[in-house]
Amino acid sequence: MEEPFPASASGFYVVGLEVRTSKALEDDPQTARVPALWERFGRENLAEQIPRRLAKGHPFCVYFDYQYPAEASFRRAERGVAYSVVLGYQVPSLEDVPPGLRGLYVPGGKYLVFSTEPQKLAQAWTDIQIYFTQPGKPQRAFTYDYEEYFCQNAPCDEVRIYVALC
Known about the structure:
Number of helices: 4
Low-confidence stretches: 72-77
Largest sheet: 8 strands, antiparallel
Distance between the termini: 23 Å
Order of helices and strands: EEHHHEEEEHEE
Mean pLDDT: 89
Shape: globular
Helix content: 10-25%
Strand content: 35-45%
Strand order of the largest sheet: 1-6-8-7-3-4-2-5
Structural class: alpha+beta
Radius of gyration: 16 Å
Number of strands: 8
């Protein structure tokens, strides 16, 4: 994984499939929900279901609504962390959200951007968690983090991971 770079991002809208999960669930292949979300994304040809999808058509995977158990320590990378995921596409507004899909506004803000290959994504998130525990690194906001997939060829070539900063 390359060295991350800072970025300011504008807010945007995403429409897609939603699931609620946790780090503990995702760490176990038998209970992981995000891979099934990707399978459904492909099987249902989600791009064709979303009216007014923006032209660049990159898939986005947004992580938000982080929730920590009352007993969680200061380290937020605990296994008990629960969060929501929306996997979909950018749209200009939330006026035409089809039934069964979730519309979401992702607010703008300061991010640290990591880049990786799609097949190395799980390791990249592990590396990101380690990165933020190092002294002198910025603090994560745990608001809205997202992945942007660049698919010039099939399969996708690159994933940029935007991690929100305080």
